[in-house]
Write a structure and sequence with these properties.
Elements (H helix, E strand, L loop, with lengths): L4 E4 L3 H12 L4 E4 L7 E4 L4 E4 L3 E2 L10 E4 L10 H7 L5 E5 L5 H5 L8 E15 L2 E13 L4 H7 L6 E5 L2 H22 L9 H20 L6 H11 L9 H7 L10 H11 L4 H13 L9
Parallel strand pairs: 1-2, 1-6, 2-5, 3-9, 6-7, 7-8, 9-10
Antiparallel strand pairs: 3-4, 8-9
Helix pairs in contact: 5-6, 5-7, 5-8, 6-7, 6-9, 9-10
């Protein structure tokens, strides 16, 4: 096993992590559905071509020291055949996904693993075709305090990623969810890029959504206040206007959306705590209607 790294999922995040780790000399394998010859990463100032070993079937791989699980949250269950092969008693599975509740999703799928560790990523990457990526901005990763945290952080030495280990991971995860709670649904429902976040009407909507979310986050144990929500609203207006979101890319491709793990997570937690979140419930209803709806009007 040595220090082998496997990445499950060849979307923007999985591909970008693979390119960074491969260029840093890590023995990484990318586990995908569709094979491609190399990763081509378009950066703001250059284009990189990176060769990474590819596996398209679980029977092509064996246990890895680290597995980075980067599929969309709604696709987590489908990774079990990969985890059955990749995760052994010395394996740390790092769940690099949007939302909260990472451990609840993944631990039942990899009970044989040494550890399952959640992670929050700050990286806007668009997959334009298999193996072809556009990196818009960001290269950060947050991990909770965990016995395996230092090992995973060291894995990224020599890459462009800044890795932080957080004592209060619940707060970190909910803060990232605040941004996703606005930008992902807005871009997916309007079919517009991140520049939409700068418009006064969207800023007002963002304030309302996060006013509700602050109450839910606090009930879930996150140390976030209205000031944090206001800060996120202001930050949303400064993003790369040409960037997109995972839900926008999925809707453009006619794929199911990730709303149940973003807006849905807030609505379900609100129901558990008896908190009324009418704006988030409305957005969730719209996302459910749009999910999987192709732009030609078919389903």
């Amino acid at each position: 096993m040595s220090d082998k790294v496997a990445i499950v999922g060849s979307g923007g995040i999985g591909g970008y992590l693979a390119a960074e780790l491969a260029e840093a000399g890590r023995p990484v394998t990318l586990c995908v559905r569709t094979a491609f010859d190399k990763l081509v990463v378009q950066e703001p100032d250059r284009v990189r071509e990176v060769t990474v070993p590819i596996a398209t079937r679980p029977d092509e791989v064996g246990p890895a020291r680290v597995v980075l699980l980067t599929t969309k949250s709604q696709d987590t269950a489908g990774t079990k055949p990969w985890l059955d092969r990749l995760a052994g008693p010395e394996t740390t599975v790092v769940v690099v996904q949007n939302g909260v509740g990472h451990l609840d999703r993944v631990q039942p799928l990899a009970p044989q693993a040494k550890a399952v560790v959640p992670a929050i990523i700050y990286c806007a990457v668009e997959r334009v075709s298999p193996g072809r990526l556009v990196h818009h901005t960001g290269a950060g990763l947050s991990l909770p305090e965990h016995p395996e945290g230092a090992f995973v952080a060291e894995l990224f030495s020599g890459t462009s990623f800044k890795v932080t280990v957080e004592a209060d991971f619940t707060t970190v995860a909910w803060r990232k969810l605040f941004a996703n709670l606005v930008s992902n649904p807005v871009t997916a429902l309007t079919l517009r890029r991140v520049r939409a976040n700068r418009e006064p009407d969207i800023q007002n909507l963002a304030s309302g959504l996060l006013r509700e979310a602050v109450l839910v986050a606090a009930a879930e144990g996150a140390a976030l206040t209205q000031a944090d929500a206001d800060q996120v609203v202001a930050w949303l207006g400064t993003g790369n206007p040409d960037g997109g979101t995972s839900m926008l890319y999925d809707r453009l491709a006619g794929r199911p959306l990730e709303h149940e793990y973003i807006t849905g997570a807030v609505v379900r937690a609100a129901e558990k705590h008896g908190i009324d979140v009418p704006l988030n419930r409305a957005i969730l209803a719209l996302c459910r209607a749009a999910s999987g709806h192709k732009l030609d009007g078919s389903y």
